[in-house]
Design goal:
Helix content is 42%, strand content 39%. The radius of gyration is 22 Å and the shape is globular. It has one domain: Nuclear Transport Factor 2, Chain: A, CATH 3.10.450.50. Strand 1 and strand 2 form a beta hairpin. It is α+β, with helices and mostly antiparallel strands and 152 residues long.
Length: 152
C-alpha cells in the first residue's frame, strides 16, 4: 500500500511539474510579447517627437501621466503634449531600448539622441513606466529623463 501511495504522489508531482513548466513557458512568451508591444509604443513616442505631433503621443499617456524632464521640471499630460508640439527636431533616435515586465507593469529605458532645429544636440537617458489599463491597453504613467554628457 505504501508503494502505491508513493507512486501516486510521484505521478502527481510529475504532472504538477509539467503544468508548472507549461505555465512558465506561456508566461515567457507573454513577457516577450509585452516587451515587443511596449517597445513599439516607445517607437511611436519617438515618431511623435520627431514630427512634433502630440496626436501620436496622446493615446499613449494616461490621464494622470507625470513627466520629469532633464531640467527637473514636472509636467502633466497636457503640458507634455504641448512640449512635444513646440519641440522641433531635425533628427532623433533611441539607443539601447530595454523593456522589463513586472506583471501588469513594464519599465522601458534607453537613450535619446537628437538634434534640434535650433542646432542644439540632445543626449538623455530616459525611463518610462507603463501599466496595462482595465481596457487592456498599455499606457505610460510616468517618464523621467536625465541629461548625459557627450563622450568624444
Amino acid at each position: 500500500m505504501k508503494r502505491a501511495w508513493m507512486g501516486l504522489i510521484g505521478g502527481v508531482m510529475l504532472m504538477a511539474g509539467a503544468v508548472s513548466g507549461a505555465v512558465s513557458g506561456a508566461q515567457g512568451r507573454s513577457t516577450a510579447e509585452v516587451e515587443k508591444k511596449v517597445a513599439a509604443l516607445e517607437a511611436q513616442w519617438l515618431e511623435a517627437q520627431k514630427k512634433s505631433d502630440p496626436n501620436l503621443l496622446a493615446p499613449l499617456l494616461a490621464e494622470q501621466f507625470v513627466n520629469i524632464s532633464t531640467d527637473s521640471a514636472e509636467s502633466n499630460k497636457a503640458e507634455t503634449l504641448e512640449l512635444v508640439k513646440k519641440a522641433k527636431f531635425v533628427s532623433g533616435e533611441y539607443l539601447e531600448v530595454k523593456v522589463t515586465v513586472f506583471g501588469e507593469t513594464a519599465i522601458a529605458r534607453g537613450v535619446f539622441h537628437g538634434n534640434g532645429a535650433d542646432g542644439a544636440e540632445v543626449l538623455e537617458r530616459w525611463t518610462d513606466t507603463w501599466v496595462k489599463t482595465g481596457k487592456g491597453q498599455w499606457q505610460c504613467v510616468a517618464s523621467h529623463a536625465s541629461p548625459m554628457k557627450k563622450t568624444k
